[in-house]
Amino acid sequence: MFFRAAHFRAARAMLDASQAEIAALAGISLPTLKRLESESSGPGRANSSNVEALAKVYVDKGIRFHFPDRDGLIGVSLDND
Protein backbone atom coordinates (compact mmCIF):
# COMPACT_ATOMS: atom_id res chain seq x y z
CA MET A 1 0.00 0.00 0.00
CA PHE A 2 1.41 3.30 -1.05
CA PHE A 3 -0.25 6.61 -0.43
CA ARG A 4 -0.47 9.09 -3.27
CA ALA A 5 -0.69 12.84 -3.00
CA ALA A 6 -4.22 12.59 -4.39
CA HIS A 7 -5.26 10.46 -1.40
CA PHE A 8 -4.37 13.25 0.98
CA ARG A 9 -5.88 16.05 -1.12
CA ALA A 10 -9.13 14.12 -1.51
CA ALA A 11 -9.30 13.23 2.18
CA ARG A 12 -8.87 16.85 3.21
CA ALA A 13 -11.50 17.96 0.70
CA MET A 14 -13.99 15.39 2.01
CA LEU A 15 -13.55 16.83 5.49
CA ASP A 16 -13.77 20.41 4.18
CA ALA A 17 -10.66 21.25 6.19
CA SER A 18 -7.88 23.71 5.48
CA GLN A 19 -4.28 22.69 5.05
CA ALA A 20 -3.41 24.61 8.22
CA GLU A 21 -6.05 22.76 10.26
CA ILE A 22 -4.89 19.33 9.10
CA ALA A 23 -1.20 20.13 9.53
CA ALA A 24 -1.84 21.23 13.12
CA LEU A 25 -3.83 18.08 13.91
CA ALA A 26 -1.08 15.89 12.43
CA GLY A 27 1.68 17.77 14.23
CA ILE A 28 3.48 18.56 10.98
CA SER A 29 4.38 21.88 9.41
CA LEU A 30 2.23 23.48 6.74
CA PRO A 31 5.08 23.25 4.18
CA THR A 32 5.36 19.53 4.94
CA LEU A 33 1.64 19.03 4.33
CA LYS A 34 1.88 20.97 1.07
CA ARG A 35 4.72 18.68 -0.04
CA LEU A 36 2.72 15.57 0.90
CA GLU A 37 -0.19 16.83 -1.22
CA SER A 38 2.04 17.73 -4.17
CA GLU A 39 2.35 15.38 -7.14
CA SER A 40 5.96 16.48 -7.65
CA SER A 41 7.13 15.53 -4.15
CA GLY A 42 4.30 13.53 -2.59
CA PRO A 43 4.27 10.94 0.17
CA GLY A 44 6.62 8.57 -1.66
CA ARG A 45 9.52 10.90 -0.99
CA ALA A 46 8.46 11.97 2.50
CA ASN A 47 9.50 10.96 5.99
CA SER A 48 7.38 7.92 6.83
CA SER A 49 6.49 9.28 10.28
CA ASN A 50 4.93 12.36 8.66
CA VAL A 51 2.93 10.19 6.27
CA GLU A 52 1.75 8.00 9.15
CA ALA A 53 0.80 11.01 11.30
CA LEU A 54 -1.23 12.50 8.46
CA ALA A 55 -2.95 9.23 7.58
CA LYS A 56 -3.86 8.72 11.26
CA VAL A 57 -5.58 12.10 11.44
CA TYR A 58 -7.73 11.20 8.45
CA VAL A 59 -8.52 7.67 9.64
CA ASP A 60 -9.48 9.02 13.07
CA LYS A 61 -11.91 11.40 11.32
CA GLY A 62 -13.57 8.55 9.40
CA ILE A 63 -11.63 8.56 6.14
CA ARG A 64 -11.02 5.18 4.52
CA PHE A 65 -8.15 4.92 2.06
CA HIS A 66 -8.50 2.56 -0.90
CA PHE A 67 -5.56 0.97 -2.72
CA PRO A 68 -5.52 -1.03 -5.97
CA ASP A 69 -3.65 -3.99 -4.50
CA ARG A 70 -6.08 -4.33 -1.58
CA ASP A 71 -9.37 -2.89 -2.79
CA GLY A 72 -9.16 -2.98 -6.56
CA LEU A 73 -9.53 0.79 -6.70
CA ILE A 74 -7.75 3.92 -5.60
CA GLY A 75 -9.38 6.70 -3.66
CA VAL A 76 -10.90 7.69 -0.36
CA SER A 77 -14.32 7.43 1.24
CA LEU A 78 -15.86 8.84 4.40
CA ASP A 79 -17.58 6.55 6.88
CA ASN A 80 -21.06 7.73 7.85
CA ASP A 81 -20.80 6.61 11.46
What is the number of helical segments per DSSP (H or I, 4+ residues)?
A: 5
What is the rounded Rg? 12 Å
Order of strands across the main sheet: 1-2
Q: Which parts are unreliable, with pLDDT below 50 for 5 consecutive residues or more?
A: none
For the biggest sheet, the summary is: 2 strands, antiparallel
Mean pLDDT: 94
Relative helix content:
40-55%
Q: State the secondary-structure class.
A: mainly alpha
Any idea what the shape is?
globular
- Series of secondary-structure elements, N-terminal to C-terminal: HHHHEHE
β-sheet strand percentage: 5-15%
**Strands, count:** 2
State the end-to-end distance. 25 Å
Characterization of this structure:
By secondary structure, this protein is mainly α. The chain is built from five helices and two strands. It has helices spanning 5-15, 19-26, 30-36, 48-60, 68-71; strands spanning 63-66, 75-78. It has a two-stranded antiparallel sheet with strand order 1-2. The longest helix has 13 residues, at 48-60.
